Amino acid sequence: MTARDRLQSSLLPRPDSAPVEWTVAEGLTPYLEAVAVMEARAAAIARGEAREQVWLVEHPPLYTAGTSTKPGDGASNGLPVHASGRGGQVTYHGPGQRVAYVMLDLNRRQPDLRAFVSALESWIIGTLAAFAIRGERREDRVGVWVTRRDKAPGLDGTPAEDKIAAIGIRVRRWVSFHGISLNVEPDLSHYAAITPCGIASSQYGVTSFADLGHVVTMAEIDHALRAAFETTFGPTV
Q1: Among candidates 139, 136, 114, 141, which has minimal Cα distance to 124?
Q2: Cα-based distances in Å from 229 to 61, 85, 124, 126
Q3: pLDDT tens digits for range 212-237
Q4: Does residue 197 carry a catalytic annotation?
Q5: Catalytic-labelled residue, pool 102, 120, 197, 221
Q6: Which of 40, 45, 94, 158 is the 20 to 30 A CA-CA neighbour of 200?
Q7: Across the strands, what pairs with 92?
């Protein structure tokens, strides 16, 4: 059991909390528009003027560079790159990837960033389990990983691992925004133009449901996400 496994795996709200608003956007949402909406909603939640929200979107093809981005991590293929206030480094977003923006009041749950990240990982792992995919945490790498025994192992003989979901969050006044991205059927070739999340080792790649041989619709993913979310974070409406 890892240290993050030992952290609280659910962040259920106080009993007097309203259900989390669950919203699914249609079409492709421009990234800067999404950031503006998140910023406004998080501020309203902090003021007590809005309920918590999970907002599911897909973006047009683009990269975002988090606050830990290093020189050389950036994109080289001409797609737009947006500086992002979330944690983490460079990652890709695009059609076929489900992005879940998570705006939760951690004062009503547990004001602990490590516990929050652990709960986000638990949420993703629970979603993957609904499709018989084993998602795993790694102590030295944020996100959720899949062991690939169908690929060549690393030089040290350890199995290859691919990332299927990324996590990048920001918290202001203990209200979270930004969130997670889950690869359903994106164009994985776009990851070749960056160092995804700063991880350059050839032993670690990027995968998706489609790459693993799972043909699923985004609606099926959304249903599983909602069920696993409610187990980890409480009811939605």
Answers
A1: 136
A2: 26, 24, 8, 8
A3: 999 999 999 999 999 999 999 999 99
A4: yes
A5: 197
A6: 94
A7: 63
